């Protein structure tokens, strides 16, 4: 029994952050990159290939003991081909479909008796829902891409014609808060959650997270963790998953599932004894899961989005002097407007102060605050 | 102003652990390895070369903006040649000599008015000290290598003849405790220490550390941190340094200096807001230093030494189930008897429990406890 070799399809920031616990644990770790310049290539062995090409992916898998993913874009057919060739792939294709297709996910939530918003499929632009409503392309979207607010029938008809395929339509809810629960589960069924995370969105992109969710009742908090565990079991999850929820009228409805380490779990690198990245590795290797408890009362994470500044080093001179406890994570990506190029995290007791420092850092790095 | 490129001479576990904050900070990071199989090569770009060959080292330095070291073995002449060629090297040769030569260090401590044990140089085996005494080869030793307990004149004469060079002789003190203080200092003089660490030794090798030192008076604790800051300034330190001290009769004497990240600071990866590895990078880049405060009341680190077991993966099945909060660090080294092949860390409130779990893990991984 020696160290199993893990291969990750995708070499962006999630694979990059997963490389750290892989190396700490001594796990040989290789990423399957789209280009020689992907962010994870500087911290891991990498091969370049096309994840939609099953021959490429199978050749990569032959050099690994377990395959996992950092994104939902690998075609289900490729994943099934891996499985049929006897490759150990986690999450399994059977589970991964709930991350890859939002209609299949909605049906599964109904089957599990969990609250969905009112929803229906529509391929011709007809709907029984009231306007305004939300229309989603079932597969391939993230960070608000593939999601549309539709105000009237004309707009829906136009979208349906443009998309030329089935749409998922959902009622537009009077959202109070958006919450994410990270959960991990291993092949033999050990499962574990972290405290629920409040995700603060702007224009459909998460800009800040607060863990645990402030001002939430103990009952609701526990209920949400139980929901995450129920879904994990219900879909046969192996690895980590983000369960995204809306809080409406003091209760919740399911929004989306992401079967991978997730932006809403980045706080766990500093904020939890076991990060989502380490837990994912433990889960897919069927190792006992780590302690998910927090290292401080609060963890606040802020996404650094590309803005007018292109130099991400110079801001250190000011920010490190101002906030010595601020933790930086650069993704090794070129700065582009609105692109997630890194994140910062603060942990501590004083939530207001943590939020202020994270806000300041993010604005300063993105160039919203002038130097 | 863009990300400066850091090059590290040496590619063992210290460079490996330094690669993590380098990547988090977005710092291009390359290690100068002795072989293609060195431990840091899997997490960093690497070039293979001979660190005693100034041509090799200069060629490497030409690809970097700052050069640093993970060991004391680079010849002073090579470091000076780098400096004379205009390469930014930290720590500087001037400072590094106190880490490289224990006699020069003893003289400097005297100059700074800091307590040494009684000591003298001897090249012919004569001494005015009482037996038993400690004899040290001034350069090149670590982990107890190059350090001898000498019980009588015959043994000293024999050693002096064998070594054929100058020896540092020191009185053998009735040691109560061995303590290490990590300190960081940047080129413009910002300096910072972590709480003092108790290092527990067996056969001259550190087996466990406890931070902060339990049952130490506040006065002594502050005095020790001040000593570390005084030495850092006195030798013009840039980077991090371990100041190793002996506690004798409730006071202290200086033992050794190590001008690099040090085994006694490994606890800081999980136990401090800023680890020694991140602080070293901030210091050599002249960035503002990070917050060194602890993330928990205590941090206990245990070195995993090579023993009868050669499989370091299988122990995870038991240890992760028993102690979910235990953090593992594998160095990617082949198991050899007595070799440091990794370490484990626990942080928390209950010191006795932390020590027990670390002891158990280390014994279990080394094979002292049977499965």
Automatic annotation (TrEMBL), chains A, B:
GO biological process: 'de novo' IMP biosynthetic process
Entry keyword annotation includes Nucleotide-binding: yes
Gene Ontology cellular-component terms listed: cytosol
InterPro entries: ATP-grasp (IPR011761), ATP-grasp_carboxylate-amine (IPR003135), ATP_grasp_subdomain_1 (IPR013815), PreATP-grasp_dom_sf (IPR016185), PurK (IPR005875), PurK_C (IPR040686), PurT/PurK_preATP-grasp (IPR054350), Rudment_hybrid_motif (IPR011054)
SUPFAM superfamilies: Glutathione synthetase ATP-binding domain-like, PreATP-grasp domain, Rudiment single hybrid motif
UniProt pathway: Purine metabolism
Keywords: ATP-binding, Nucleotide-binding, Purine biosynthesis
PROSITE patterns for the chain: ATP_GRASP
A GO molecular-function descriptor: metal ion binding
NADP is among the record's keywords: no
A matching Pfam family: ATP-grasp
Residues of the ATP-grasp domain: 106-285
PANTHER family documented for this protein: PHOSPHORIBOSYLAMINOIMIDAZOLE CARBOXYLASE (PTHR11609:SF5), PURINE BIOSYNTHESIS PROTEIN 6/7, PUR6/7 (PTHR11609)
HAMAP family, per database record: PurK (MF_01928)
NCBIfam families linked to this entry: PRK06019.1-5, PRK06019.1-6, purK
Name recorded for this polypeptide: Unannotated protein
């Amino acid at each position: 029994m020696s160290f199993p070799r893990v291969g990750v399809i995708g070499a962006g920031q999630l694979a990059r952050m997963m490389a750290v616990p892989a190396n700490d644990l001594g796990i040989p770790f290789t990423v399957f990159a789209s280009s020689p310049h992907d962010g994870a290539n500087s911290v891991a062995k990498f091969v370049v290939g096309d994840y939609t090409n099953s021959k490429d992916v199978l050749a990569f898998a032959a050099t690994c003991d377990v395959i996992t993913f950092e994104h939902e874009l690998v075609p289900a057919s490729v994943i099934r081909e891996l499985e049929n060739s006897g490759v150990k792939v986690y999450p399994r294709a059977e589970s991964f479909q709930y991350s890859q297709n939002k209609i299949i996910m909605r049906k599964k939530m109904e089957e599990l008796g969990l609250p969905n918003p009112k929803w229906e499929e529509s391929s011709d632009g007809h709907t029984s829902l009231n306007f305004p409503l939300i229309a989603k392309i079932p597969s391939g979207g993230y960070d608000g891409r593939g999601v549309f607010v539709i105000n009237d029938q004309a707009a829906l008809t136009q979208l349906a014609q443009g998309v030329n395929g089935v749409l998922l339509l959902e009622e537009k809810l009077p959202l109070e808060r958006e919450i994410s629960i990270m959960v991990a589960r291993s092949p033999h069924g050990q499962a574990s959650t972290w405290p629920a995370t409040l995700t603060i969105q702007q224009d459909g992109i998460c800009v800040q997270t607060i863990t645990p969710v402030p001002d939430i009742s103990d009952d609701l908090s526990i209920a949400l963790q139980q929901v995450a565990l129920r879904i994990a079991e219900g879909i046969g999850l192996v690895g980590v998953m983000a369960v995204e929820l809306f809080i409406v009228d003091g209760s919740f409805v399911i929004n989306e599932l992401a079967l991978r380490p997730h932006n809403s779990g980045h706080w766990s690198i500093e904020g939890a004894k076991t990060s989502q990245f380490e837990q994912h590795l433990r889960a897919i290797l069927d190792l006992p899961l780590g302690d998910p408890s927090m290292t401080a009362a609060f963890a606040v994470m802020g996404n650094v989005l590309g803005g007018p500044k292109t130099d991400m080093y110079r801001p250190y001179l000011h920010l490190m002097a101002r906030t010595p406890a601020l933790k930086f994570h650069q993704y090794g990506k070129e700065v582009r407007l609105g692109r997630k190029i890194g994140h910062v995290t603060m942990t501590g007791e004083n939530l207001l102060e943590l939020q202020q420092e994270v806000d300041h850092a993010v604005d300063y790095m993105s160039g919203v605050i002038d130097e």
